[in-house]
Specification:
single chain; TIM Barrel; 272 residues; alpha/beta
């Protein structure tokens, strides 16, 4: 008897565009390793972001700036091996695309070739237009990122809500339209007023994914470790914790320690 493998409908940039047209919300989460990616993909997430937030949650750095292209390729290739359905987007890390479109293209090509990912994400608006154009010219899909752009943290000096003033809000709308016109397939809007995010989502035809940008956008993204409650010192207003793994894992490890010390583990049935 032959076993038929069930065909999985892969999420593509085209599928995401159709979702926006139908008004179907897009779900997006980060993942940085094979095991987590396999779980998240199997659960049915639409987009997996291999975020430069790996710098914080995987490597323990204070900002996203220290992570390198090699690190991102390592995380991305680990994720790709666990994915069957989701669209995999990889952040181009700080210093690999800003101000140099040739370097931007070679960074994007390395990510695509060496990790097998499906697309890349860049932070910024008109100042990165040339880099976006050059990457797109090689047939690599690009996702934009506006609002709070963590790679510019030292320019902002703080992680507060962006685009509250009219001037910055107007510039953000212009940048979103420019990224759409340049050819980005979607844009992440981070930590901006909900009304502004909703306006952007209505005024551009590509999917707008929010993080701390309210519910009037086309989809949402969170950092997986935050959603699972593995990080317990990060508490922004936009974060909903769906679990408290910090406590659960701590409890499991403490239980193991007790059992080892008391010689309860391993018992007779747990040895050969």
């Amino acid at each position: 008897m032959s076993v038929h493998k069930v065909e999985v409908k892969k999420v593509t940039t085209h599928v995401l565009q159709e979702m926006k047209l139908k008004g179907e919300k897009i779900s997006m989460l980060t993942a940085y390793d094979y095991t987590m990616a396999k779980i998240v993909d199997g659960a049915g997430i639409d987009i997996i972001l291999v975020g430069d937030s790996a710098s914080n949650v995987m490597a323990g750095y204070e900002t996203t700036l220290p992570i390198t292209l090699e690190h991102m390729i390592y995380h991305a290739s680990s994720v790709v091996r666990g994915v069957n359905r989701s669209l995999v987007v990889v952040d181009l890390p700080f210093g690999t695309y800003q101000g140099n479109s040739k370097e931007a293209l070679s960074s994007a090509i390395r990510i695509m070739k060496e990790s097998g990912a499906h697309s890349v994400k860049l932070e910024g608006g008109k100042e990165i237009r040339e880099s976006v154009e050059r990457i797109l010219s090689a047939g690599i899909p690009v996702m934009g990122h506006l609002g709070l752009t963590p790679q510019s943290i030292y320019k902002f000096g703080t992680y507060v809500v962006r685009a509250k003033e009219d001037e910055e809000a107007t510039r953000l709308i212009e940048d979103a339209k420019l990224l759409e016109k340049t050819g980005c397939f979607a844009i992440v809007l981070e930590k901006i007023p909900a009304t502004l995010a909703e306006k952007v989502a209505k005024e551009v035809s590509i999917p707008i994914i929010g993080i701390g940008a309210g519910g009037g956008v086309d989809g949402q993204v969170l950092v997986l470790h935050d959603l699972l409650g593995m990080t317990n010192e990060f508490n922004p207003r936009f974060l909903r914790r769906y679990h408290n793994l910090f406590e659960e894992i701590t409890g499991a490890v403490k239980g193991y320690i007790v059992d080892v010390k008391s010689t309860d583990f391993p018992n007779k049935s747990e040895q050969y």
